[in-house]
Each structure stands twice: as C-alpha cells, then as structure tokens.
Amino acid sequence: MKKIIKYITIALILPLITTSCLKDKELIGPDADGAVDNIIEFGNLAAPASDVTSSIPLYALSFDMDPEGVLNLVLKCVGAKPATTDIKVNISIDNSLLNKYNEENETEYVALPTSQYSLPSSEVTIKSGEREAIIPLNLKPDQFTFDEDYALGFKISSVSSGVISGNFGQIVAAISGKNPYDGSYTLTTSANTSLVPSATKSVKLVTVGANRLKLTPGLLGTYSNEVYYTVNPSTNHVTVECPSLGVQTPQDTRSNWNPTTKVLTVYWKQGNGGRTFEETFTYTGPR
C-alpha cells in the first residue's frame, strides 16, 4: 500500500517539476536558449509563380516597355521582433539558380542580358527597429525581346547579424515586357458566336511578343485551346491564331484594335468554317 501511495505521489509531482523547468528555461519561443532573433530573407516580389515543391521560389514580373524600369528587391527581417541593431545585407546575382530551377521544374529560363539591367548597389542596411529595406535593380524594358524566357537569380550572400533564410534566401525573378495591348479585359461574345454565345467573361491578354498577345484562359475565356492575337501597329488590324482549331483565311478585315477606347474586336471562323467567333475585348486595367 505504501508503494502505491509513493508512486501516486511521484506521478502528481513530476508534471509540476517538468512545467517549472519549461517555464524557467523558456525552451520554446523567441526568448528560448539558442533562439534566433532575426531571419533575413527576400520579400515577395509578387504572388509566387512556382510550385510549392520547388526549392527556389520564382516570381513572374512584367514591365511596361519604357526606357527605364525598376525592380525593387525587398530584404526582410522576420521573427517576433524587428531588428535590434543595424543589419547589413549583401546580395548577389547568381544565375546558376536558373539552371537549378530549370532542372527541378522542367523550364527553360535563360539569364537576362547584362546590357538590359544594372545593380547600382548590392548592399543595404535594415535599420534597428525596422523590418525591411530595398535594393533597386534598374531595368531597360524597351530593350527586352521575346525570343527566350528571361530571368535573373538572386541570393543573399551575407548578413551582419541574424541567419539567412533557408527558404527565401535565394529566388528567381522571371522578367518580361508588356506591350501596349497587355492587360485585363472584359470579353463579350455575340449571339452568333459558337460554343459560348452572348457571354461576358473576365480575361487577360498577356504579352508573348512585341505586338502579340495570348488569351488567358484560352478560347472564349472558357476552354484550354490556345488563342493568340497579333496587332499590326501601323493599321491596328488584328489577326488570330488558334493552333488546335485553325483559322479560316483570308481573315476578316473587320478585326481591329481601337487605341482610343482600348477595345479589341475580332471576327474569325474555325479553319474548316464550322464555327464562328465574334469577340469584343474591353480594357479594364493592368493585369
């Protein structure tokens, strides 16, 4: 009986001792022994475009094709507290990250030509009491071409305090230009349109060339069939490509882009003449 009472007493006391130890030593939390005050990482440049399984985050960025553009690289101090002292952060352009990203994700990104960007400074200081700082990368979007998928790899090479993030200490930024027709649109179809007549959809026209656009999502803003529109900048006449259905030729000369109202209108038939498509895209803003 005495042994039973002894074991019960130990069982009751042991949790109290354990709780006391945890409380005294703060084994869990920002004040724990060995806890890291600051983790330094790149902030999101946009919504990540990479798969969650990718070891390197990728961000897809598009710029108006002006003579000058800026990509602001955000360096962040994350954790329970802001920086408690000035933290010097050095970054570098590391395009070997493109090879690694390509291998993991079956993509074909190549390095943006050095003539199309400059990094005035690779060092920035996150001030004490603050959480982030910015390093600007200067771009020359009017020199961008569309013959390849271009990108740049960035990594945090050193920090004066804290620890470089294992997840966001290196990133890839896919960089492309936006032609004058790129943007978000409201698509309306006529009553004569095959498959999806008299419809209204929210879609995007995405730059894939100096004057060429891809409809996203695909055909009629409904199907996965790829559709492309090319604007002749001299005449504003529009031609259509739909690889899966084909497009009857000669194409309808009524298809055009109105630069004043930012409305793109297309009339076209499937390659065999079996379906008719009459679409009006009204610009609503940048994508």
Automatic annotation (TrEMBL):
- Residue ranges constituting the DUF7015 domain according to the UniProt record: 183-284
Q: Which residues form the BT-3987-like N-terminal domain?
A: 69-161
Q: What is this protein called?
A: Uncharacterized protein DUF1735
Q: Which organism is it from?
A: Sphingobacterium alimentarium
